[in-house]
Amino acid sequence: MDQPNTDVIQGTLDLLILKTLSLQPMHGFGIARRVEDISRGVFKVNPGSLLVALQRLERQGWLDAEWRQTENARRAKFYTLTRAGRKQLDFETADWRRRANAVARLLSAEG
Amino acid sequence: MSIWRQLTRGLRTLARRGETDAELNDEVRDYLDRTTAANVARGMSRSAAHRAARLELGNPTVTQERVRNSGWEHGVETLIVDVRYGLRRLRSNPGFTAVSAITLALGVGATTVIFSAINPILFKSLPYPRADHILAVSDVSSGPVTFGTYREILQRSRSFDALAPFKPWQPTLEGGSEPERLNGQAVGSDFFRVLGVMPARGRAFTAAEDRSGGPRVIVISDALWHRRFGGDQAIVGHTITLDDDPWLVVGIMPPSFEDVTDAGADLWMPLQYKTVFTPDDREWGHHLRLIGRERAGVTLAAARADLNQIARAPRPDLPRVPWASLANGLRVESLQDQVADDVRPALLAVFSAVLVLLVIACVNVTNLLLARGAQRRGEFALRAALGAERGRLVRQLITESMLLSLFGGLLGILVAVAGLRAFVAVSPAGLPRVASMHLDGSALTFGLLLTTVIGLAVGVLPALHASRDDLQAGLQETSRRSVGEHHVTRRVLVVAEVALSLMLLVSAGLLLRSLQRVFAVDVGFDSSNLLTMQVQLTGPRYRQDDAKARFLDEALDAVRRVPGVTEAAFTQQLPLSGEFDVYGVHLERNSDPKDDGAALRYAVTPDYFTAMRIPLVRGRLLNAHDVAGQPRAALINQSFARSEFGADDPIGQRFRFGPDDGQWYTVVGVVGDVKQAIDALDSRKAVYITPSQWHWVDNLVSLVVRTRSASDASSMAPTVRGAIWSVDRNQPVVRVATMSTLVSTATAGRRFALVLFEVFGVAALVLAAVGIYGVLSGSVTERIREIGVRAAMGAAPTDILALILRQGMMLTAVGVALGLIGAAAATRGLVTMLFGVTRLDPPTYVGVVVLLFGVSAVACWMPAWRAARIDPSVTLRAE
Fold it and tell me: Does B66 sit within 8 Å of A48, measured CB to CB?
């Protein structure tokens, strides 16, 4: 490993999943890879946590899940963002921005 | 939406675990494959790529577990597993399961029975709409109120929507095979409005019907309607014959109607008192009870203040008589409280007792669970070693104790069904609201709640103990060298059991001694070989006093001719019967016109004293010359003579008794004191006169018949009744009882409480003995090696016997010491039920302590004997 990767910050995994799925439906592995890619390897998604989170979000009605054919006649469980999930994403995004700004202000105030 | 999903997904998982598992498995596998493929794409070799993927994903089984365990259905699955496992454990040890479940069943059953019995009396509201608005008003000085007082309250108070005075009424219903005396009430016209229940058919009384000389109208109960009139609808609007008079039935109460003011009441008539009356009229007699329904928005406190303000400030236009001056104020309470007042202390004591018993039962089961936990230490240690978390173990053990208490609880409900029937069957007459004692929803809820609490209570301690065990020691469980600290717990529990049993036994003992004292009371007459019955003179021909007197004479003659009868007499008030007929006394020598208190009135035929064997102390008895028209003669009892005349000779003194009609009673003799109520602490003043020298001749009189033998007294009732009917066939003869039956009826309440306490006490004693036995026997098993060593070192069997016995006796001694302190405090609640003994009665305490030590010695003996017979060569080799 060339640079240290960090486990996803507690509580942000849901946001990252929702965000990723807002771009396109995807299976678990795809979500994990996409998070790692976009964060340039800063975040590393633990597969176990990811699957637990997916089940939870699906039960909350924010995701739909279905088995789809993929390349080479393989099947994978694809997750799609529902309308409720999109709303939740908006909410969590706004919330995250608010917190991040607050933290940023605090940090800059010190200097 | 999301709750719906949660539910359906969870249920689907529960229903088709295999399918969801396979799906999850596929997903994890797919994830693994894709990771591997990605690694290969980055240039890794196939096997290295696979290894790296495994590394990243971790153990796929663990991952799957994590996902599986995240849903709510996982909790359900764990529960099912725990329940299954628990059931298996319980089944594998049927002896333990049976003993614990039965112990709990008895505890829960007994507690539920007592709860169902006291619930309607103490806690449930009366069976009327807005029952908390029904108040009972009584005169602080006298209890019952006068009609005059009622009328004044009715005119002046603004706290009530409706007020109703009432009194007992016992008419005789004719037309059946035998005349039947019914229990009824004469009530103010608003009686049913106060209670808030109206007749189901017909109507209630109108105000116009409730006046002196008003029409003869009645409302009857549903029970009477079915029993005597076959549920015939046409009865409303028809007349029936009561006391030789036609009465018009105007209404029938609904079947659900319960008259809590008189549980046996079957019919009601309007009170029909005069609106204009003089001090000598019955309207100024204290014989009415009064209930009222609060006006909306009036509180009990406000009603109380209102009535007492009225009591304090008489109004000139509503004059009062001296004996109803309301000088001590009016008592205002809810009807519920008034109904429960007399029995509340006893019921609360019994309920506390049964709760103590329940605690003992729980302690016993806890002890059994602890003992079993000790046996299962190996199992728990192994499971912990295999990765079971402590919380998981505790949860499993609590599930087991819950199952146990659930069995116990369900069994207990069965026990309660039978127990409540027995309770009602043996409950003393006068216990209010017996009709509403059944296992209803609230009793079942109570039982189940109790069961849940017990499941937790008995399970927590053993579960914590079992899960706290250290692995190392647990896994080497073949060695019994370590004495676990749970033995300390078990001993503490046994000590508690002994202490609680002592408290129960002391209470039972005090009640037993009280009852003995009651039976030892000198009632003042010879109660053996006495037959008693009540005769009611009804019908128009007995409206004349001389007709009544003639009937009494003729009836006595007829009864005396019955073979086996030695003496017979009439009295209008029978000792020990619960009757209480009291009139005011004014002595001639007290010029001050103040009251000289009240005395019991006995209008008796002259033979009464010889028939009852009441001794004449001085002067003469009443005789055949003391009749109407002659100077009025009276006998007084010794209490009267002592308190009013002291050392003076009472003979020849004169006094007024009852209504003032200008005539004096002259004391002609003094007779011995007789107890009117068996557990009255001291005798009251009493006056004896002949029936015809009283202001009127009573219609309801009691016959006392002395027979040659005790068996005659009970078997001769039909013959004696026949003799009375030979004089007049239409007079109902009721309440036939031997005097010994009256004695036992008078003590029924006491005996009932005693039986309950004795049952609870004995049960507690047995449980405590079992507890001591269990702990000692466990301890002998644990110390088998130590005892073996002692024996090998030369300890004689008697030494070892003493060692174990001492251990058991120490536990008992500590328990007894604590129990004595507890009993000294707890018997405070028993004071009202005691008679002739103090609550710290030394013989009771000594007796109970001796009993407890004796029983615990027996319980210790078995394990001690087993220890004494330990063969060192066997036990030492076994290690």
Answer: yes
| pLDDT attached to residue B225 | 93
CB-based contact A55 B71, cutoff 8 Å: yes
CA distance B63 to chain A (A): 5
Residue B822 contacts residue B500 (beta carbons within 8 Å): yes
Say whether B67 and A51 touch across the interface (CB within 8 A). Answer: yes
Q: How many CB atoms lie within 10 A of CB A46?
A: 18
pLDDT at B476: 58
- The rounded distance, in Å, linking the Cα atoms of B216 and B281 is 21
Is A84 in contact with B1 (Cβ distance < 8 A)? yes
CATH no. for residue A51? 1.10.10.10
- Residue A47 counted as domain residue: yes
**Inter-chain contact A59–B58, Cβ cutoff 8 Å?**
no
Domain region containing A18: 6-110
Distance in angstroms (rounded) separating the CA atoms of residues B346 and B431: 11
> What is the residue extent of each domain of chain B?
2-71, 141-328, 344-519+748-878, 539-731
How many C-beta atoms surround the C-beta of residue B287 within 10 A?
15
Question: Which chain B residue is nearest to residue A54, measuring alpha carbons?
Answer: B67
Element (H, E) at B218: strand B217-220
The parts of chain B modelled with pLDDT lower than 70 are: 1, 175-178, 430, 468-486, 592-595, 681-682, 878-879
**Segment A5-56, tens digit of pLDDT:** 556 666 788 888 999 999 999 998 899 888 888 888 788 888 888 888 898 8
Give the predicted TM-score (pTM) of the model. 0.76
Determine the pLDDT at residue B482.
46
Report how far residue B617's alpha carbon sits from residue A107's, in angstroms, rounded to the nearest whole number.
110
Structural domain contains residue A25: yes
User: Which pLDDT value is given to residue A7?
Assistant: 60
Cross-chain Cβ contact B2/A84 below 8 Å: yes
Residue of A13, A33, A59 best to disrupt the B interface, most CBs of B under 10 A: A59
- What is the share, in percent, of chain A residues with pLDDT greater than 90? 31
Q: Does B714 touch chain A (CB under 8 A)?
A: no
- For residue A39, the SS3 value is coil
Phi, psi of B380 (to 5 degrees): -65, -40
Kindly state whether residue A81 falls inside one of the protein's structural domains. yes
Q: What is the distance between the alpha carbons of residues B59 and B67, in angstroms, rounded to a whole number?
A: 13
Q: What is the pLDDT of residues B52-98, one digit of tens each?
A: 888 888 788 888 888 888 878 888 888 888 899 889 988 988 888 88
Mean pLDDT in residue range A61-71: 87
Report the gap between the CA of A103 and the closest CA in chain B (Å): 32
B146 contact partners, CB below 8 Å, separation of at least 6: B139, B283, B284, B285, B286, B287, B288, B321, B324
Question: How far is it, in rounded angstroms, from Cα B528 to Cα B258?
Answer: 38
Report if residue A1 sits inside a domain.
no
Least Cα distance to B205 among B299, B261, B271 occurs for B271
B405 close to B458: Cβ distance less than 8 angstroms: yes
Q: Count Cβ atoms below 10 Å from residue B860 Cβ, excluding itself.
A: 25
Tokens of A53: 């989170």
Q: Between chains, do B5 and A61 touch, taking CB under 8 Å as contact?
A: yes
Domains held by chain A: number: 1
Interface of A to B at Cβ within 8 Å reads: 27-30, 33, 47-49, 51-52, 55-56, 58-61, 74-77, 84
DSSP B122: I
Condensed to tens digits (0 to 9), the pLDDT of residues B85-141 reads: 889 988 988 888 888 899 999 899 999 999 988 888 888 888 899 998 999 999 887
Residue B702, SS3 per DSSP: strand
CA Rg value for chain B? 38
How far is the alpha carbon of A48 from chain B, nearest alpha carbon, in Å? 5
Q: What is the DSSP string of B160-175?
A: EEEEEEEEEE--EE-S
* Cβ distance of A75 and B23 shorter than 8 Å: no
